[in-house]
Amino acid sequence: MAIQDIRRIAARLGVRPSELELHGRYKAKVNLSLLDRIKSRRGAYILVSAITPTPLGEGKTVTTIGLSMALNRLRRRAVCTLRQASLGPLFGAKGTGTGGGASQILPAEDVNLHFTGDTHAVGAANNLLMTFLENEIFHGNKLGIAPESILLKRCLDISDRSLRRIRYTLKSGEARLDMAGSFEITAASEVMSLLTLSRDVADMRRRLKSLVVAQDRQGRFITAADLKADGMMAAVLKEAIKPNLVQTSENTPCLIHTGPFANVSVGASSIVADRMALGLSDDVVTESGFGADCGAEKFFDIKCRVSGFSPDVCVLVCSARGLKAQSARVRVVPGEKIPDEIFREDHAALEEGSLNLKKQIENIRLFGVPVVVAVNVFPTDTPAEIDRVCQMALSYGAARCATTTAWKDGSRGALTLAREVVKVVVKKQARFRPLYGDGLPLKDKISAIATKVYGAGRVEFSAEADRALETYTQAGFGHLPVCIAKTQFSLSADETLKGAPAGFSFPVKDARLAAGAGFVLAHASLMQTMPGLPAQPRGALVDIDEQGRVKGLG
Fold first, then answer.
1. Would the CA dihedral through 324, 327, 328, 333 be positive or negative?
2. pTM confidence score
3. What's the angle, vertex CA 166, arms to CA 162 and CA 169, rounded to 5?
4. Most CB within 10 Å of its CB: which of 116, 191, 311, 378?
């Protein structure tokens, strides 16, 4: 189908012209005044997650888009809500964030590149706060900030490993202060998570005031409000808090808003976008980043806790080749050539790798949410392999299992999946419960995730992590949920451990307070918040033609 004027998409969704702020013909922001008109939730809430990701790509975003289009084909008004792509992975190894084939978001080039400028606004707000912090130190440091206690990092929306650690000097007259700092990618910044978890402008404003940047020499936390930077940040973010409306390749609506990573941050699109979508539609199909142990756990324990919404069903995406890659029988390494044997029928590898599927189904059911397994079918798969995956999925506790060919066939390829999802939704089987309560100590919250979701036998806290968690508890932040930064390529903190490892030791190296976003971030091992480029960056393939059209992104 040809791309349509965004005003037609908005009208079919029920967005009024006065609520639409156009950014050209094919994309628009939705004014938050819409929230005053749609007070109550109406739609079903469908989360899409996946097995532990492999370099093959399981097709989670394609499935999210295809499922939303298929639900519309069933004459249900459906919307998908997605995160915005980051330029770092886009030009690195991961590629686009708009799906592909017959199930993608349009205009894909705009969405994948600068879109409506939200990510740049987040970076500007974050970095302006950093300049206010250093300006306070430069001009006499009346707040008594201890430079070694600074939590805030500068951010940039590209991958640059050289910025992981920096040293620089602040001079004021004869005074000289040598500073150590670092950058992180914008998607990993607290400001991005803060925007994601804000319910409206007033909530964003409150969160900005409470964003902790450092401590003074007496141990008191210094906030953005103390630096008088919160108002400025709110002004920079006043447009960024409005969700962006675009369309799928079948002209159905999609709201794209915010883009935190799931391995080092909360990994979900915004609460504001979901509030709008739930009030306007029969079904909202949203996704969480990476595997269920990363994105879905954070979706349940952090986003649902803040929003008050909980999914009616979780669609867990897998593929036969992805499961084979989870076995020890096939060596699949990020950045290296995919071995040919992964595309051959191998039931032994499939059975061994299916333990990852089993564990991820168990992880979702821990939260009282029923699971529909979506088997993404590729041309090299055999019918026997696909049948076996569905048999195993049902035996592992999935409520339903269906195949999907959404990349090739669009909504028609996801119709069976859509019908199975609707069957589960109408039965209202979900009995949502978070993994832990607010009153559980921070260390016990981390241990609960590590042992129950990841499969660890024990958790080892470094002395630095112990001190930080105790400090945050004493300061009154012990009620916050925790967000664990770890590799996305394994249930453990060691990306070489495939399948469903169990009984391992899970390391917590340090902890960082994200009071504005509303969680405590715990780092496992040496997880980086600033990625680097691979040996052969995808960005080397990108160019424009003589008409100025982008090529090489897909």
1. positive
2. 0.95
3. 150
4. 191
Distance CA 191, CA 204 (A): 10
Query: What CATH number should be reported for the domain whose range is 6-117+240-427?
Result: 3.40.50.300
Spatial separation of the C-alpha atoms in residues 177 and 180, rounded to whole Å: 10
The full DSSP string for 130-172 is HHHHHHHHHTT-TT-B-GGG----EEESS--GGGSSEEEEEEE
Q: How far apart are CA 264 and CA 447, in angstroms?
A: 17
**6-117+240-427 and 442-523: identical CATH topology:** no
- pLDDT tens digit string along 313-360? 999 999 999 999 999 888 887 767 788 888 999 999 999 999 999 999
DSSP letter string over 229-285? -HHHHHHHTTTTTS-EEEEETTS-EEEE-----TTTS--B--HHHHHHHHHH-SEEE
Distance between the two ends of the chain, CA-based, in angstroms?
18
- Structure-token pair, residue 404: 């999907």
Residue pair 367/355 in contact by the 8 Å Cβ criterion: no
Which residues lie below 8 Å from residue 61, measured CB to CB, with a gap of 6+?
A: 82, 97, 98, 99, 287
CATH 3.10.410.10, applies to 442-523: yes
CA neighbor of 372 nearest in space, from 78, 50, 42: 50
**Residue type at 355 in one-letter notation:** L
Which stretches of the chain drop beneath a pLDDT of 70? 94-95, 172-174, 335
Helix, strand or coil for residue 301? helix
Contacts of 43 (CB under 8 A, 6+ apart): 77, 79, 277, 278, 279, 280, 281, 282, 283, 284
The H or E element spanning position 522 is: strand 519-523
Class of domain 118-236: alpha beta
CA-to-CA separations, 276 to 114, 244, 281, 408, in angstroms, rounded: 23, 11, 9, 30
Q: Under DSSP, is residue 314 helix (H, G, I), strand (E, B) or coil?
A: strand
374, amino acid identity:
A
| Contact (Cβ atoms closer than 8 angstroms) between residue 226 and residue 40 | no
Dihedral sign of CA atoms 137, 142, 148, 150 in order: negative
